[in-house]
Amino acid sequence: MWGFNVTPFQPATLQLTGIPGMQTGQAWLAPIFFILYLISIIGNLSILSLVVQEPSLHQPMYYFLSMLSLNDLGVSLSTLPTVLATFCFNYRQVGFDACLVQMFFIHTFSFMESGILLAMSFDHFVAICDTLHYATVLTNSRILATGLGILAKSFITLFPFPFLVKRLPFCKGNVLHHSYCLHPDLMKVTCGDIHVNNIYGLFVVIFTYGIDSTFILLSYALILRAVLAIASQEQRLKALNTCMSHICAVLAFYVPIIAVSMIHRFWKSAPPIVHVMMSTVYLFVPPMLNPIIYSVKTKKIHRAILKVFQKSRN
């Protein structure tokens, strides 16, 4: 079934690659990844600190933003151990069970980000289309319930993945194509029947990314309709400007996902480095960009940052 000279096994450890074709001499990438992590961690911690300390930010929009920052910290911290070990110390071995745990957390945080972006789009929809009832619709208890619901949905849907991988024998070696563990990458070195993994993986993607992105588009279609009904052009621009940070965050998250999917489906002969670079963009760019986007584009965040700097000078 697996060939005459291939024996299926479950490896005690898996080997991480880093950048395919550049296994040697890639230590120069370590400072780049270190800077990316530093920007992401400091930026998201700063957003969380501002929301907690600044009374003017105690509003639904910024509560959802703090959820996004907390989730982005989770994305960064879930990849950090193996990425730094690979590029800084050239240590490429990861335990099989540890790899499954990392895979679970990476995918869980990624799916949670999609749900949080959907919740933020609903926040903008209510703020623009039903302003009078904004405070009564988005109460603190409902915001907390929304956050817990996103966490529960992602955790429950992703929970079977480690067990679905663990049941499979490995007969194509133990070398992965990234410096972290992803479900599609693990599937490339397994053998046996992976139809359940593929079908369930497709179901989860549609159930999360597909539904979330559809409702985000619907929210903005309704927002656009409401904005175009405003008589004053100045008020239209003001209303649209409140959504710009979120639109940038949505694009930073979904564009790499769509690009990875398109390459996987229609460019199967693409060099391995293309898949690795796109996956790297997908995991590293949103956590780094989101705090920068909201710091620059959101006036209240910008003012809160300036206020902190003024206090530090005094």
From TrEMBL:
Membrane topology of the entry? Multi-pass membrane protein
Family matches, as SUPFAM superfamilies: Family A G protein-coupled receptor-like
Q: Which UniProt keywords apply?
A: G-protein coupled receptor, Membrane, Olfaction, Receptor, Sensory transduction, Transducer, Transmembrane, Transmembrane helix
Q: Where in the cell is it found?
A: Membrane
Any one annotated GO CC term: plasma membrane
Q: Where is the G-protein coupled receptors family 1 profile domain?
A: 43-294
Q: What InterPro entries does its record include?
A: GPCR_Rhodpsn, GPCR_Rhodpsn_7TM, Olfact_rcpt, OR51/52/56-like
Main subcellular location of this protein, as a coarse class:
membrane
Q: Which GO terms describe its biological process?
A: cellular response to lipid
Name the Gene3D superfamilies on file: Rhodopsin 7-helix transmembrane proteins
Transmembrane helix among the record's keywords?
A: yes
Recorded GO molecular functions are: G protein-coupled receptor activity; olfactory receptor activity
Q: Where are the transmembrane segments?
A: 28-52, 73-92, 104-122, 143-165, 199-223, 244-267, 273-293
One Pfam entry for this protein is 7tm_4
Instruction: Please identify the protein, giving its name as recorded.
Output: Olfactory receptor family 51 subfamily I member 1
